[in-house]
Amino acid sequence: MNILVTAFDAFGGENINPALEAVEQLDETIGEHTITKLEIPTVFHESKDVIQQALEQDHYDAVISVGQAGERFNITPERVGINIDDARIADNKGNQPIDVAIHPDGAPAYFSNLPIKAMTEAIKKAGVPASLSNTAGTFVCNHVLYQLGYLADKFYPNLLFGFIHVPFIPEQVIDKPNTPSLSLDTITKGITAAIHAISDHPDVKVALGETH
Q1: Which one, out of 8, 67, 174, 206, has a CA that is 20 to 30 A from the CA of 89?
Q2: What 3-state DSSP class applies to 166?
Q3: Is-catalytic flag, 141?
Q4: 78 annotated active-site
Q5: pTM
Q6: Strand, coil or helix: 167
Q7: Pairing, β 62-68 against β 2-8
Q8: Backbone phi, then psi, for 20, in 5-degree steps?
Q9: What is the pLDDT of residues 144-164, one digit of tens each?
Q10: What is the rounded distance in angstroms from the CA atom of residue 115 to the CA atom of residue 205?
Q11: 20-29: buried (b, 16+ CB within 10 Å) or exposed (e) per residue?
């Protein structure tokens, strides 16, 4: 499979984004998968535009977006993106939509069609803390997950898509007492394990037309 793995630039006053740092460390090949890495802006709608441009230029079987969730203790594959932008802080271009639908013609929500439970278990089997998440928030992370579902629904019916949240890395929490973190290598190991888990799952084989 050809997999596009995206990650955001730094935002919210941070100098780095652990999602981007970890994605940059991924191998170019993971199991049977060829990995293409893409940095996307932490900006509503522009983030989707960058992904859509990549999809128009090359064929990808799946897109996995990775983002920072600074208060989380573990790596969390996301189940669903909802059709709302409700920003607690501004994005990297000063946009701060409140209670705005992402796409008026879109579904209320789009569920990841990746094997998220198998991915979560694979992360844990690799010795990395993980849990399945049922909320991607209402900031640009949820925005991108929803946009991926919208793109799959409207333009790329065979596209597999999902989102993984990762915690801070230690250097980000030096001045944040009692804030959890994982090392960069641990996060990279977890994302790698999640990607490994995709190819053998029967739902993925059906989606790719390999079984009936």
Answers
A1: 174
A2: strand
A3: yes
A4: yes
A5: 0.94
A6: coil
A7: parallel
A8: -65, -40
A9: 999 999 999 999 999 999 999
A10: 11
A11: bbbbeebeee
Catalytic residue, candidates 33, 143, 165, 196: 165
Q: How many Å apart are CA 130 and CA 28, to the nearest integer?
A: 23
Could you count the other beta carbons within 10 Å of the beta carbon of residue 97?
18
Neighbours of 211 (CB within 10 A): 10
Contact 177, 11 (CB under 8 A): no
Active-site annotation holder among 33, 78, 143, 196: 78
Candidate list 28, 32, 56, 141, residue with the active-site label:
141
| pLDDT tens-digit readout, 135-149 | 999 999 999 999 999
Which band of pLDDT confidence, cut at 50, 70 and 90, is reported for residue 211? very low
pLDDT at 204: 64
Calculate the average pLDDT of the chain: 95
Size of the chain, expressed as the number of residues it contains: 212
Give the angle subtended at the CA of 141 by the CAs of 81 and 26, to the nearest 5°: 110
Contact yes or no for 115/201 (Cβ under 8 A): yes
